[in-house]
Input
Amino acid sequence: MPRPPEPEPEPVEEPLEAPRESLNPALQEALQYADHVRGADAPALAAEISSLDKAKDGPPERRLYLALALMHTRQPADTARALGLTQRVLEDGALAALHPLARLLEERLLQQRRLEEQLDRQSRQLREAQQRNEQLSERLEAMRTLERSLNAPR
Output
């Protein structure tokens, strides 16, 4: 009896190679800052945002740092503000070294904004459904009261 042919092994994809040159210092600082604010608690994050907000004349990288801090508050207004700051970084040719991180951040913020909008829609739908449910319960109770009054002995 002939043996069935053995399946050919699937080609193994090579992992992406990391760039051979070292990271740009500005990009490396931004990544370290992102890691710093990622682990910050709410009061520390608020203090960080406040200090970055006050430093209006600071380095242009400050906009990206502020966006990185704002994205961790999980507030829709802060998400929109962080997105605006990130887009300003992308428009600034002097910050070209930070553009890859800014593009990644922009994509993440757009996704976060879509999710926040979806959550808002679902919350609104839930409130409306609860209101309808309460109205129907009230009507049902009114009908039961009417039924009891009609069935009551005279």
Observations:
- Residues 99-151 form the longest helix (53 residues).
- The helical segments are 25-38, 42-54, 62-70, 76-91, 99-151.
